[in-house]
Amino acid sequence: MARSSQQTMTRESILLVVEGYTEKIYFSQMRQALRIQSLSIEPKLSPKNDPINVIETARKEMNRADYDHIWCIFDSDTLSKHSYQKACKKARDLGVHIADSLPCFEVWFLLHFGFSSKQYEKCSQVIEDLRIHVHGYSKNQEWLKQKNMFITYQEKISDAIKNAKLIKQFSKDNQIFSGITCEIYKIFEEIERLHGKKLFKA
Are 94 and 59 within 8 A, CB to CB? Predict the structure, then answer.
């Protein structure tokens, strides 16, 4: 039998283990919007929303399926420096990546609208500033699904990536929990790298 001239496309798989519904909804919307044929992107909600259990969920998923790239996404506001280092070591030992935010994931949304070195003690403070740009922002699942933060602000993702990098540069000589941090941009850079094309234009 003659072989088909159409070659089977090799798909790389990305597992995104998240701690909350905000992240789960956002990355599910991202996957649906991008529809990259060469990539399989699977957001997975951890049963428990602390960083160690997010990483433990990643470990269990590794035993269940063979993923090419695994990211653990969590807020680091509840972690002491020792606990953070412990979580990072566990992730490294498993070969998974961490994309954390301080104090919460909403920092990623806020960075769509500008650079900030402001220190936030609570997520509620981040949300208060975010509402200046996103009227009525809510962590309610139905609100998030209807608003579709990914689609609504997709054109600003390149700004968020740039601003997240500026924060990292700004804070490099500070303590690990100084100011705000957001490593979410690394996931978007990896998606672009694996896709081989620019998805988020500056």
Answer: yes
